[in-house]
Amino acid sequence: MKETILLVDDELAYLDLLKSILNQEGYSNVITESNPLNVKGLLKTQKIDLILLDIYMPQMSGLQLLEQITPEYPNIPVIVVTAVDDKDIALEAIKFGAYEFIIKPPDTDRLLLTIRRAIGYKLLERERDVLRGDAPVTTVDENKFSNIITDSDAMRKVFNLVEIFAPTNETILIVGETGTGKDLIAKKIHDLSPRKNKPYVAVNLASISHSLFESELFGNLKGSFTGSTNDKIGYFEAANGGSIFLDEIGELPKELQGKLLRAIQYNEIFKIGSSNPVKLDIRIIAATNRDLVDAVNKGNFRADLYYRLNRGHISLPPLRKRGNDVILLSNNLIKVANKTYNKNVLGLTREAIAQLRNYPFPGNVRELENIIFNSVVQSEDNQRLAMVEIPRVTEIVENELKKSEILVSLEEAEKKHIINVMGILNNNVRKAASILGVSERTLQRRLKKIRED
Fold it and tell me: Residue 360, Cβ neighbours under 10 Å: how many?
């Protein structure tokens, strides 16, 4: 793991022991410091992701150091470790900004769990900053995402979060409507992670019979139930060393949610018919199109499992919120369909572009693919694509989509109108400004604000 952990303690033997434990757990960048007076200098020259800090040291107390560094480095989690179980000191440490307070010598499992949570907390803070716009979005290496076609700032924010989370070992929850590409993002997280050369197992939980859930996920021993004629390796064991993608996690039965939580927390599973745990090294990525918070509130999904899965959160925008992407994707899909059906359709007509821009796409990219492929099959070669009839969604879905589009602020409606006009005019600012009845300078200013939003 690439996170850099700073250990501050005046006991050299304890520092060596703790560093050895962390190294064995995969934390290769561990810095030790026995003099707290040197810590501020280290923070200025090193990129530190986490600090484990002793309280009682002769040169300066851990509380004094904590009070000094927290205002200047608020995003570095500090775990305070001390041999004295003193609630007053614990409260004082928390008041000065400590992430957690644990007693020395700490239980190794608890310490490692606290470290993982603290690092995950830092990542979530970074995620919130990116989404709020409080921190600049880093430059995304477009080559890493070359198989995902987009010119959308919303998708660039998604790519940025993928690059933040991929190198970590945190569980990730991807949310988004059906057809938004949650499976592509999950695979990209794996491909950009240190596990990229290890197994990647994708499981659609909605397709598994409830009676077979536990056997499919965790495996079983021969004879453990009627029909089990052989030992079976489950999806989790098949993904050992790599990543497992649990699509439609909201479909997981309540009786299995506790077992999944245990598997995540303790990195082990129990096969059906066995009392011996199977140890695993696995990265879990989950996805859903359901509102899990609502499911938690209704008692259908365990809150502790939701929080454990949601250590890293990526929300995918629907296609109707991705601006000109619908046209970029359509042109690419026409090329793919031409190869598939040995056709030579040349592109989109103006009428087809207008149709695509005005359709809400409740099925998102997956629905767009079906529409384009069906249209290409029915079109003549060497002609531009004049869209066949777009399949109508049910009245309920269509009405809800219309409501969501209409019930927006005036600012949002203006923003959408500007984006549509710019798209139709191929980003010609002069023509767009004339149609919108504003000066080019005013339009440029509004376009800049839209990009920043």
Answer: 18
* Residue 165 near residue 172 (C-beta atoms within 8 A): yes
Q: Provide the total of helices (H) and of strands (E) in the chain, helices listed first.
A: 19, 14
Q: Decide: 385 and 379 in contact? Cβ < 8 Å.
A: yes
What local confidence, expressed as pLDDT, does residue 135 receive?
44
Burial environment of residue 181 by CB neighbours within 10 A (0 to 12, 13 to 18, 19 or more): buried
Provide the token pair at 35: 């003099």
Note the pTM of the prediction, 2 decimals.
0.59
Give all domains of the chain, ordered by start, each with its CATH number. 4-129 (3.40.50.2300), 147-317 (3.40.50.300), 320-452 (1.10.8.60)
- Averages of pLDDT over each 10 residues, the chain, 453 residues: 84 86 84 90 86 87 85 81 72 75 77 77 52 44 73 87 89 93 94 93 87 87 78 91 94 88 88 90 94 88 90 91 88 91 89 85 90 90 79 50 55 74 73 80 80 65
CA 16, 19, 20, 22: dihedral to nearest 10 degrees? 160
Amino acid in the structure at residue 437: G
Q: CA–CA separation, 75 vs 117, rounded Å?
A: 14
Question: What end-to-end distance do the CA atoms of the chain give, in Å?
Answer: 33
Residue (of 178, 171, 136, 183) closest to 157 by Cα position: 136
Residue 241: left if φ>0, alpha if ψ -120 to 50, beta else—which one?
left
Task: Report pLDDT digits (tens) over 49-71.
Answer: 889 988 888 888 888 888 888 87
Structure tokens at 280: 């695993």
Q: Which long-range contacts (CB under 8 A, 24 or more apart) does 407-411 make?
A: none
